[in-house]
Amino acid sequence: MSTDAFKAKLAALNAEYRDALPGKFADIDALWAKRADAGALADLHRLLHTMAGSAKVFGFAALGAAAREVEGVLTPLVKGGSPPDAKDLSRIEGLFEVLRQSAR
Q1: What span, in angstroms and rounded, lies between the C-alpha atoms of 93 and 48?
Q2: Could you report the per-residue pLDDT of 14-23, keeping only the tens digit for each?
Q3: Cα(2)–Cα(89) distance, rounded to whole angstroms?
Q4: Number of Cβ atoms within 10 Å of the Cβ of 32
Q5: Rounded CA gap, 77 and 60, in Å?
Q6: Could you read off the pLDDT of 33-92 as tens digits, one per residue?
Q7: Does the reported pTM lie above 0.85?
Q8: Residue 2 CB burial class (10 angstroms; 0-12, 13-18, ≥19)
């Protein structure tokens, strides 16, 4: 594959990733709405873990860093099996705003 073909393919993959972000944020919102359910919280953690790893690859380093930060806050909640308390809620919701801003 030539360099130009590689760059074009990478640009197409980046655009595809960007176009999928609204769906990812809808998934985040849906899972967060069910945060009292330990399974939903674990699914949210997994989604953010995946986003943290993939975002940088597709040219969204700030999004990846923000997703990693939210993931880090969720990790003890998922491991402990407890829903977020008021302090966690406030912090996570603030981080979700940072996450959305990072995608722009």
Answers
A1: 14
A2: 999 999 999 9
A3: 49
A4: 17
A5: 26
A6: 999 899 999 999 999 999 999 999 998 999 999 999 999 999 999 999 888 888 989 999
A7: yes
A8: exposed
Dihedral angle computed from the Cα positions of residues 93, 98, 100 and 103, in that order, rounded to the nearest 10 degrees: -160
Number of Cα atoms under 13 Å in the Cβ half of residue 42? 8
CA distance 63 to 83: 24
**Residue 67: per-residue pLDDT:** 96
Q: Looking at this protein, which amino acid is placed at residue 74?
A: L
For the residues of 56-92, what is the DSSP string, one character each? Answer: HHTT-HHHHHHHHHHHHHHHHHHHHT----HHHHHHH
In whole angstroms, give the CA distance from residue 33 to residue 31: 5
Angle 84-99-9 (CA atoms, 0-180°, nearest 5)? 135
